[in-house]
Design goal:
Blueprint: E1 3-8, H1 16-29, E2 33-37, H2 40-45, E3 49-52, H3 79-91, E4 96-101, H4 103-116, E5 120-124, H5 140-161, E6 164-169, H6 176-185, E7 189-191, H7 199-211, E8 217-222, H8 228-236, E9 243-247, H9 259-277, E10 283-288, E11 291-296, H10 297-302, H11 309-318
Parallel strand pairs: 1-2, 1-4, 4-5, 5-10, 6-8, 6-9, 7-8
Antiparallel strand pairs: 2-3, 10-11
Helix pairs in contact: 1-9, 3-4, 5-6
Bound molecules: adenosine-5'-triphosphate.
Amino acid sequence: MKRIGLLTSGGDAPGMNAAIRAVVRSAIYFGMEVYGVERGYAGLMEEILVPMEMRSVSNIVQCGGTKLRTARCLEMLTEEGQKKAVSTLEKYGIDGLVVIGGDGSFRGAKVLSEKYGVPTIGIPGTIDNDLEYTDYTLGFDTAVNTCLDIINKLRDTMTSHERISVVEVMGRHCGDIALYSGIASGAEIIVVPEIKVNMEDIITRINRSRANGKHSNIIVVAEGVMSAEQFAKQLQDVTTYSVRPTCIGHVQRGGSPSMADRMLAAQFGNKAVRLLKDGIGNRVVGISKNNIIDMDIIEAVSMKKKFDYELYETLQMISM
Ligand code: ATP
């Protein structure tokens, strides 16, 4: 393979820049040229491609966001759009493509490889951690750390006023950000899309914790269930403790990537290029039991994300 393309697509995630750097530098190491496609699949429609050199990716390993920018591209869902994407790749002499993004971006990559024979490698870049085949996605660790920082601050003020804090985190239909930030912040309760809300149980847990000497409570609510505001309103109707909602919002998607995300980025980017160098496409890379793995893209996108009920039970046992 002589020339590869690289794009970031869907929601941005901390670590995408570090992955861009790893892909570009690894490809150059193996004597391949790299074209960066700006604005995700939209860049293939609009032909916004830039050659990337060793120095194009200097000083970005620590930056949040994505240097290539990202977009949602509805055209890519149509046959006409997909053909346009393929013709742009042909026009630029691109023999293989690396797609950094989430579930939706992988579906686009799957179409390119399955239907049009473009060797494509997916790198999981999304804060949601909603892909079953990999233990972690790029950006998840940083996003959870951002949540922890905010929850720590909320705990200070909630304790002073003896309040209940309802904190909304992202994750779309996946409860992992809520689960991990809940456990790591010592939240008493998490509310996730995978488990039905039981307000009676929540009240029992709050009352028990207060009887045990707690002066505040943290409830982490995943956005896929309802907003912090809605949840706080429902809770305030059934408790005498004062409840305050906080939506963390888009700060979760920004910021300098953590060590864990930079390490994943380096390894995912390098693995993706090694696969293309060996003429292997139609795969996604990931991490499983601390090993960097690759898997068939069709198999990976068809897997349904499972919730870690054991971790949930751990939280129930240690946060009271
Ligand atoms: P995140 O999980 O962070 O939101 P994502 O990659 O899942 O990231 P999406 O908006 O779902 O984000 O998808 C990104 C882009 O991938 C879409 O805008 C579209 O261009 C392309 N895409 C999504 N689904 C398909 C599909 N079924 N076929 C072709 N392309 C798709």
